[in-house]
Write a structure and sequence with these properties.
By secondary structure, the protein is α/β, with parallel strands linked by helices. It contains eleven helices and nine strands. It is found in: Cytoplasm.
Length: 282
């Protein structure tokens, strides 16, 4: 596995592969890798002859400087994990100066999808995501990129970005990977205390209970209210708990095919997100 830190060195490898007719897949990450990231790498098997994983903690997608400072990092462990897979050709690990050199002044915005859900209480977050993903797709020359459904709003925004900007990249969605107790894998989980980690499993459990209520015919407003009350009683601060259309992310007043339940809630000082399709069962 090559470890590359500059655009120049990455471009040299990419040009060599593309001239040989290879297909390049990429998994953009912010590091602190776990099995969810490895599922993205594995999803590219058979679809790309060369696989690149990027690690860059993107400062411009953090509206809270303290959150950026506390975001878990551990490149040495990440390198060991990727190398052990035997399926990653390049780890691209640029520094901030490489990604945003002096004079950098461009932001990419996907209007509409960026102002709801996580965009509502994290202003500018998705502009930062769209900007860095645009750069990484260009830098890696990827024809296919894998993104997890755990960050479903991000997935929708990147799909729209690629479509609107005529980027020759296929976006491959990968199902959320969960712990045995149902908690969605996330790098942020490392910041939970042991007691909070145990408590965090109540988040997916509450979503499943809410989904079961919706499928049983309970009115959406009361099912969502009961779920929010359950989470608050368990110590969560609920930022949003919404039933939305999975294609447009528009609010829904009742379950329908393609509907998803979305939640963001803070436990301690750790912000957790999750989503489940209404077709999921309890």
């Amino acid at each position: 596995m090559h470890i590359v830190q500059t655009r120049k060195d990455l471009r040299a490898l990419v040009e060599q592969w593309r001239s040989a007719g290879e297909t390049i897949g990429v998994v953009p990450t912010m590091g602190a890798l776990h099995d969810g990231h490895l599922a993205l790498v594995n999803a590219l098997e058979g679809k790309a002859t060369r696989r690149i994983v990027t690690i860059f903690v993107n400062p411009i997608q953090f509206n809270n400087p303290e959150d950026f400072k506390l975001y878990p990092r551990g490149v040495e462990a990440d390198v060991a994990l990727l190398a052990a897979t035997g399926g990653v050709d390049v780890l691209y690990n640029p520094n901030e100066h490489e990604m945003y050199p002096p004079g950098f002044a461009t932001r990419v915005m996907v209007s509409g999808l960026d102002s709801m859900l996580c965009g509502g209480d994290r202003p500018g977050h998705f502009d930062g995501v769209a900007t860095v993903v645009s750069k990484l797709l260009n830098q890696t020359g990827a024809q296919i990129a894998a993104f997890g459904e755990k960050d479903y709003q991000q997935l929708c925004i990147i799909r729209r970005l690629v479509s609107d900007m005529d980027m020759p990249v296929d976006i491959l969605p990968v199902a959320t990977v969960r712990e045995a107790d149902g908690l969605a894998l996330s790098s942020r989980n490392r910041r939970l205390s042991p007691a909070e980690r145990q408590q965090a499993a109540l988040l997916p459990a509450a979503l499943k209970t809410c989904l079961a209520a919706l499928l049983a015919g309970q009115p959406s407003a009361s099912a969502l209210a009961e779920c929010a009350t359950t989470l608050q009683a368990a110590g969560f601060t609920v930022h949003y708990l919404d039933l939305r259309a999975q294609q447009t992310l528009q609010p829904l007043s009742h379950p329908e095919p393609g509907a998803r339940l979305f939640v963001a809630a803070t436990l301690g000082d750790v912000r957790l997100i999750d989503n489940m399709p209404v077709s999921a069962t309890a």
